[in-house]
Design goal:
The complex is a heterodimer of chains A (396) and B (311).
Chain A lengths: L1 H22 L5 H4 L11 H17 L1 H7 L10 H9 L3 H37 L3 H14 L4 H23 L9 H20 L16 H20 L5 H8 L5 H26 L5 H9 L4 H32 L5 H41 L8 H11 L1
Helix pairs in contact in A: 1-3, 1-14, 3-12, 3-13, 3-14, 4-5, 4-6, 5-6, 5-12, 6-10, 6-12, 6-14, 7-16, 8-15, 8-16, 9-15, 10-11, 10-12, 11-12, 12-14
Chain B lengths: L3 H24 L3 E2 L11 E14 L2 E7 L3 E6 L11 E11 L2 E12 L2 E6 L2 E4 L2 E4 L5 E10 L2 E7 L6 E12 L4 E5 L5 E4 L7 E9 L2 E10 L6 H5 L6 E14 L2 E8 L2 E7 L1 H7 L11 E11 L2 E9 L1
Parallel strand pairs in B: 1-2, 14-16
Antiparallel strand pairs in B: 2-3, 2-5, 3-4, 5-6, 7-8, 7-10, 8-9, 10-11, 12-13, 12-15, 13-14, 15-16, 17-18, 17-20, 18-19, 20-21
Classes of the chains: A mainly alpha (396), B mainly beta (311).
């Protein structure tokens, strides 16, 4: 019984930290993991803190990207659809969809854990040699799914420019490795969205806090399953990050469907990364790597951590919705232009502090690239060439 | 398409920005430093040293680079050729993995090394003898060989290396290497060549009590009389020659008493060891002359030799 209370305490600590990392732009789970040295030698308790933190983070990190257009690597592609809903007065629905997506994916992942314990080693060994070709197929599919030849041409151009951009910034020490994705995604998906939004909107509409969502139940379930499936893919293969899976998710989805799926990817990834460590001994996320340092995983530990994850998910869902409600009540009282200008300034300030002048330059170039799909009317996921192109070069 | 001017402007800015980033990236020079000074994750550094050990994991190769201190250099999906003892120059970003610093290589260069001992301008290495302009003693050099002549281009300081000399008292083989210890030394030695009990001298690099042998000269243990052997301390490697005085077979374990003009000593040959030693319990018999190399063991106050090689 004592152990249960200890784990619940660890879970509470993880949730608290996850709320902070999720709401603070530029702070990823990996950024605070060095602080977890405090838990070294604490075994299961430390692992419970880290896992709860990782799960909670995936619920909260959509709030800054939805309300302020400030993304991180995991939420980058959600900025535009979420912000679109915000500008339609449906900000609460946007946050709620991400919470539903995360919670649903966590439940699906929990149910699938047992079969996955047996399937993951098989899937890993079968698909691993072909991962480069699979990614190439995914890229081709995303580009060719554009509506017209002209759009396909633009998609190719944007993918290539993003790819060269990714290759330059990710393979050179322009900015410290731990922080490089912050200016990259802030430029590609954050600043560009804010600047384009500023052109047409001077006021943020009222944000009613009604609990309706404009998706049919089967659409919700389908997209939760899509998110969970993509989460498995991310947790299995090196070089495939949530953003890659997100890019696949973005094809032929409405903004609402997309938000459910994309939020599910990150949460499912948190779960399957743990299962992946247990089954194939590969740590595919910073959080799981930290857990690996703390404890030797056995099945009962995995189950304990998943239970902590479920508790954390419950707490994080309520917390995310409460925080979103509070912020959405405040937002319409502020001029949208001032809010966006303030957000841009904060973004520029934080990036200049963390990454210096070079980081600002990286963000500015990313912003120019990120504006292109909005202006020419193609899907924004082509900007994911930033990550996909270097990975393709590596594998092919 | 909307905003043609803006599209053109954004494209121009993106391409120009990429060019500037490219120039900036090209202009970044790594900081040349010794491995002991590599502390900060995210730093772009250039280090060079000797390949102390290699560990393969799937397609990945993990190199331990040594210049007096050691750091891991992981090569992912590696298809090149690196051997223990090579001189490796590497440029890359410092990263931390499981609390251990690594240099993730961006560029690297591998240069083969020559390790050996020079006397009378003749440089003896594990790959043959060369005429070289070197002082007597151990040397680790980069050079170019033409026939049997070696032109030395660079010599590494001898402070990097630990010389050793002693008697191998234990050895075993792993997949691709041989591990051994010297009598009275706490160090463990590793080499790509299989070695048995014997006298050895040479030099290598020492990382945390483990010595990677780069050059050695090995010779058999000298033959000693049984009386001399009995004076040795327990655990000492010995080599004796004598006549089999008696053979007792107990539960397929053989107990051979070996005698020479100075005395006799028991050689227990346990059943699981007989195949390794190439001994047939049916053919070994009294009156045969054999040479035994093994470890002196004291059992209930009586010296005996645990055999490693019987000929």
């Amino acid at each position: 019984m004592n152990e249960v209370f200890t784990l619940l305490g660890a879970c509470a600590a993880g949730c608290s930290l996850g709320v902070v990392t999720g709401l603070t732009p530029g702070i990823h789970v990996n950024t605070v993991l060095p602080l977890m040295g405090f838990f070294s030698g604490s075994g299961k308790v430390g692992a419970a803190v880290i896992f709860s933190l990782a799960v909670t983070h995936t619920f909260l990190d959509f709030i800054p990207s939805t309300l302020f257009g400030v993304p991180d690597g995991d939420t980058a592609l959600s900025v535009l659809p979420a912000h679109q809903l915000l500008l339609e007065g449906r900000g609460y629905e946007a946050v709620k969809l991400t919470v539903i997506g995360s919670l649903g994916a966590l439940m699906v992942s929990g149910v699938l854990v047992l079969p996955m314990v047996y399937c993951i080693p098989f899937l890993y060994n079968t698909v691993h040699p072909y991962i480069g070709y699979i990614l190439l197929l995914i890229v081709g599919f995303i580009i060719l799914s554009e509506r017209s030849l002209k759009s396909i041409g633009w998609a190719c151009v944007i993918f290539l420019i993003s790819g060269v951009y990714g290759y330059i910034v990710l393979s050179n020490p322009l900015v410290a490795e731990d922080f490089i994705l912050f200016p990259v995604f802030s430029g590609l998906f954050g600043l560009s969205t804010l600047l384009i939004s500023l052109r047409g909107h001077s006021e943020l509409p009222l944000q009613p806090l009604d609990s309706r969502i404009h998706l049919r139940p089967y659409q919700v379930v389908t997209n939760i399953l899509k998110g969970a499936a993509a989460g498995i893919m991310v947790s299995l293969f090196p070089g495939v990050c949530p953003a890659h899976a997100t890019a696949v998710m973005s094809v032929k989805s409405s903004p609402r469907q997309f938000l459910v799926a994309v939020s599910g990817v990150n949460t499912a990834n948190a779960v399957y990364a743990l299962v992946g460590l247990y089954t194939i001994g590969k740590a595919r996320s910073g959080a799981v790597l930290a857990i690996q340092d703390l404890i030797q995983l056995d099945f009962s530990t995995v189950v304990s951590l998943l239970a902590c994850g479920l508790v954390a998910a419950g707490v994080a869902s309520v917390t995310a919705l409460c925080i979103a409600q509070t912020l959405l009540k405040m937002l319409p009282t502020i001029s949208y232009k001032y809010l966006m200008a303030f957000t841009c300034s904060i973004l520029v300030f934080i990036i200049s502090i963390i990454t210096g002048f070079t980081g600002l330059l990286v963000m500015a170039v990313g912003c120019c690239i990120g504006i292109l799909p909005l202006l020419v009317g193609v899907r924004r996921s082509h900007c994911m060439g930033t990550l996909l192109f270097p990975v393709l070069l590596h594998y092919l | 398409m909307r905003d043609k001017g803006l599209v053109g402007g954004a494209t121009f800015c993106a391409v120009t920005g990429l060019a500037i980033l490219c120039i900036l990236a090209h202009g970044i020079k790594p900081e040349e430093m010794e491995i002991a000074s590599v502390r900060e994750p995210g730093a772009y550094v250039a280090c060079e040293g000797i390949v102390g050990s290699l560990r393969h994991s799937g397609d990945h190769l993990f190199v331990e680079l040594f210049d007096g201190a050691a750091v891991i250099v992981p090569f992912f999906n590696f298809t090149g050729d690196i051997s223990v003892g090579d001189f490796l120059s590497v440029e890359g970003m410092v990263s931390e993995y499981k609390g251990q610093l690594e240099i993730i290589p961006e560029h690297y260069r591998v240069t083969p090394m020559y390790y050996g001992q020079c006397s009378d301008s003749l440089f003896d290495t594990l790959h043959g003898e060369f005429h070289a302009d070197l002082s007597p003693g151990f040397h680790a050099v980069i050079g170019s060989a033409e026939g049997d002549h070696l032109t030395v281009e660079k010599e590494l300081p001898e402070t990097l290396f630990v010389p050793f000399h002693g008697t191998i008292s234990w050895c075993t083989t792993h997949d691709t290497e041989c591990e051994f210890t010297l009598y009275g030394s706490p160090l463990h030695f590793f080499t790509e060549h299989f070695l048995g009990l014997g006298e050895i001298s040479g030099f290598g690099i020492c990382i945390e009590q483990q010595v990677t042998v780069l050059y050695y000269q090995w010779k058999e243990l000298p033959l000693e009389s049984i009386a001399e052997v009995k004076q040795k301390p327990e655990g000492y490697p010995v080599r004796v020659q004598g006549i089999i005085e008696s053979v007792r077979n107990s539960n397929r374990h053989l107990f051979v008493v070996l005698t020479d003009s100075t005395g006799c000593i028991l050689i227990p040959i346990f059943k699981d060891q007989q195949e390794i030693l190439g001994i047939d319990a049916e053919t070994i018999c009294k009156g045969q002359e054999i040479t035994v190399t093994g470890i002196l063991h004291i059992y209930q106050g009586t010296p005996e030799i645990l055999p490693e090689v019987v000929t």
